[in-house]
Design brief:
By secondary structure, the chain is α/β, with parallel strands linked by helices. It is about 40% helix and about 15% strand. The longest helix has about 40 residues. The protein is globular, with a radius of gyration of 21 Å. The mean pLDDT is about 95.
Length: about 375
């Protein structure tokens, strides 16, 4: 089975798993236990991981709060800010759009162009909160979020950076955001762990969603998930070491996939989205003029793991609101798929995957 769904989740890097194992077996102490070495070792491991996460994004360790992932981090920021005037885009993750819909009084959604990039052509000093993702999970399009402060000078800026972390360089200070959300399982770390960045000096109004002990500066009650936090930290350390080499390796595989598929099917039968804008190295979102889409996906799914839209969106059975916002025709959206290439894919897998896509494409017309 060829795995090309790395934007949904990545495989845990073996070095990450190796780093986690002692904290699942021998070093199992509670980091809040102050009177013995088990607790001291667990606390040291958590703080080391905090430094590893911070170094990857050029933050200070005390600006990092560990959470269960970007969804929790997003909800913490949006539900706690109590903003009355919020700006976001039509292409945000559902963990942004749903809490905004539930808690905001007045919402402005920025349009995106056919290239998938948001546009804002005005300055609004009344807006007090803005949330725009750094890189889209379906198209891979990278958004120019560093310009947001200029357009909304009095607003707190938040960005969901889950898909960008470990794939492109992130200098959190240059991006000029107040809050940012991250997940461990998008960069070869474990599921169920992530972080919230809170800019030092921000007039912080974040309060905990969960009340209990004083963990994570009182913002996230509950005993820290030490093994997963350690794994997340190690994944960030590896990402920092490999950022350049991973980027070019994955981008090369992406171009190979792109060129091979175009050569095999021809430009009339395939349409790519978001490729004219800055894009993540391994993401390809495209539609095929195939016959029966259910047949295509069933046949392809026997050999290749891909997505049709985002993993979270598939739970609702809805078509992609991201591609709808980009004004892609509905018939194309229904026949769109996302391929996301990662660190552990190989050239032979890419070539073989193209073969399987072409075979599934041909079989989608059988019986019509």
């Amino acid at each position: 089975m060829i795995y090309l769904d790395n934007h949904a989740t990545t495989k845990i890097d073996p070095l990450v798993l190796s780093e986690m194992m002692p904290y699942l077996t021998e070093l199992y102490g509670n980091p809040s236990s102050r009177y013995h070495s088990f607790g001291w070792e667990a606390e040291r491991a958590v703080e080391n991981a905090r430094e590893q996460v911070a170094k990857l994004i050029n933050a200070d360790p005390h600006e990092i709060i560990f959470t269960s992932g970007a969804t929790e981090s997003n909800n913490m920021v949006i539900k706690c800010t109590k903003s009355s005037n919020i700006v976001t885009t039509y292409i945000e993750h559902s963990s942004i759009l749903k809490p905004i819909a539930a808690f905001a009084d007045h919402v402005i959604k920025l349009n995106v162009g056919y290239d998938g990039v948001f546009t804002v052509c005005y300055c609004d000093r009344e807006i007090d909160f803005v949330s725009v993702m750094l890189a889209n999970n379906e198209t891979g399009v990278i958004q120019p979020i560093s310009n947001l402060k200029e357009s909304f000078p009095n607003a707190k800026i938040h960005s969901d950076m889950a898909q960008a972390l470990g794939k492109i360089p992130i200098n959190i200070k240059d991006l000029d955001v107040d809050y940012a959300s991250f997940s461990g399982h998008k960069l070869y770390g474990p599921k169920g762990v992530g972080a919230l960045y809170i800019k030092d000096g921000t007039d912080n109004c974040i309060f905990p969603l969960l009340h209990g002990g004083g963990h994570e500066k009182g913002l996230r009650a509950g005993t820290q998930n030490v093994p997963s936090i350690v794994g997340f930290g190690k994944a960030c350390e590896l990402a920092k070491q490999r950022l350049d080499s991973d980027y070019w390796y994955i981008k090369t595989l992406k171009h190979q996939f792109y060129n091979c598929l175009l050569f095999r099917l021809g430009g009339d039968l395939i349409k790519f989205y978001g490729e004219s804008a800055p894009n993540l190295p391994g993401c390809l979102c495209f539609s095929l003029k195939c016959g029966n889409m259910d047949v295509f996906l069933t046949e392809l799914g026997k050999n290749v793991a891909i997505s049709s839209g985002s993993a979270c969106l598939s739970l609702s059975g809805s078509t992609s609101y991201v591609l709808t916002a980009m004004q892609i025709p509905e018939e194309e959206i229904k026949k769109s798929i996302r391929v996301s290439i990662g660190r552990f894919n190989t050239e032979s897998e890419i070539l073989e995957a193209v073969d399987y896509i072409v075979d599934a494409f041909n079989k989608s017309f059988e019986g019509e």
